[in-house]
Each structure stands twice: as structure tokens, then as C-alpha cells.
């Protein structure tokens, strides 16, 4: 059952509305307030689905009440239908709509029109509330899935890093045990390669976390918008986002300084920018 608050100081109009709603008494419960202030007091105590608001009333008139309703978070989403027999000019209606009224009724009330307006407004309100609920559930589900994804990724990353560290130790011990100089030399070379890879992975994860934390998940959003980019492209974008100079980019990516321009060119081509300046400005503004 919908609860409707009728705010009006005219007993004859209240009686008209009561008679109009009588055939639908099982659907609508009608509550009363004879001025705007009394209506606001009632709203603090009751959950109301719709307000029928008169224009001319003592203490607090309709427009003043409407302003207060729409500026109060608790009441702002309650639909308000204005009704009056005097203020029916276009400028009056426009003023009421600008303040947040959802519809308008002229006095004296027509039972068929009143019921039609109530049903229309309440149906729209129910649809909007259901849409908001579904969107909220969707957002909560997406967040839950993302949290699970991040948890699984963190577990996988920890296991992978643990495996690499163990392999590094095992390989180091193996190299130390070798008598053959060539085998030892080759083993030391592979060990250095592995150590560089572990260091690079660690630096990338640190950079990724720093960039996402500082720039509101920049990398996650950038990767979602440009799924064609490689991990190397994302690393370069992250370094550009934190305004790293070319030498720092080269050191971070373990490449020669002149290779930075080549990597930027490849990234430019993938994203469709004519110059490095355009590419960097896009990343900085993203």
C-alpha cells in the first residue's frame, strides 16, 4: 500500500481527494497536513511514497515547502505533485517544476485524472527505485568479483615470486657446485638473467601499485580502455604518467636511452597520436 501525504488547508479539497481515492482504498493510504511545516514534521516520523502539495497555505506555503523538501537529502527523492486552483499560469508551473515538482494538478480535483497521475508517478518512482537497486547490486557484484580477482592475482603473484626466489637459490647453489668452467660460466649468466627478471617484476609491481594508488587506478582503467596494449606499453604509460624523464624510463625498462623514443613511437602508433607530445598529454590527462 502506498502512503500519500496530502498537504492542504482546505477541508473541502481534502474531502474531494478522499472521495476520489475511496475506490482504491486498498492501494492508497491518505495522510494529512494542513501546512508545510506540519508536513515536514510528519515526514520525520513516517515513510511517505508521494506528496500532494497545495500552493497557498499558512505558516509555510507550497513553494517554500518544496524548496525545503528538495534540499533535504532524506526527503529529496519523494515525488511531489503540486495542486492549486489559483497559480495555473505557465510561469507558475515552470517555477514549481524548476524547484523539483514532478507533476501538477488543477483544483477542483477530477477523480479520474487524480488516480491516473498518482499511478503514473508512483509507477515511474517504482521503476526508478528498482533500476537504482539493480544498478547497486550490479556495482556490488562487480566490486566483489574484482576483489576476488585481485585476491587470486595476489595469491598467484606470491606463489610465482616464491617459486622464482626458490629457483634463484637452487640455481645459485647448482652453479657453485660446478667444476666445469663453461658450465659455471653459462650458469652464472642464466642466474644474472633471472635476477634481472625478478628485479624488473618487483619494480613493475611497485610502480603499478604506486601509479594506481596515486592516480585513481590509472593503469587499470587505461588497460581496460586499450586492451591491445602489451605489458611493456603499460609500463611505458605508467612512467609517462608519473612524469619520468627519458633517462629514468630507460633505467626502469632496462633499455638504451635512444630506445625510449622508439618505444614511445610504437605506443603512439597503437593509440593513433601524431606526436609524442600528444601522446604524453593524453596520458597525463587520462
UniProtKB/TrEMBL annotation:
<dbReference type="InterPro" id="IPR016032">
    <property type="entry name" value="Sig_transdc_resp-reg_C-effctor"/>
</dbReference>
<dbReference type="GO" id="GO:0000160">
    <property type="term" value="P:phosphorelay signal transduction system"/>
</dbReference>
<keyword id="KW-0238">DNA-binding</keyword>
<keyword id="KW-0597">Phosphoprotein</keyword>
<feature type="domain" description="Response regulatory">
    <location>
        <begin position="3"/>
        <end position="122"/>
    </location>
</feature>
<dbReference type="GO" id="GO:0003677">
    <property type="term" value="F:DNA binding"/>
</dbReference>
<dbReference type="InterPro" id="IPR036388">
    <property type="entry name" value="WH-like_DNA-bd_sf"/>
</dbReference>
<feature type="modified residue" description="4-aspartylphosphate">
    <location>
        <position position="54"/>
    </location>
</feature>
<dbReference type="GO" id="GO:0006355">
    <property type="term" value="P:regulation of DNA-templated transcription"/>
</dbReference>
<dbReference type="Pfam" id="PF00072">
    <property type="entry name" value="Response_reg"/>
</dbReference>
<dbReference type="InterPro" id="IPR011006">
    <property type="entry name" value="CheY-like_superfamily"/>
</dbReference>
<dbReference type="InterPro" id="IPR001789">
    <property type="entry name" value="Sig_transdc_resp-reg_receiver"/>
</dbReference>
<protein>
    <submittedName>
        <fullName>Response regulator containing a CheY-like receiver domain and a GGDEF domain</fullName>
    </submittedName>
</protein>
<dbReference type="InterPro" id="IPR050595">
    <property type="entry name" value="Bact_response_regulator"/>
</dbReference>
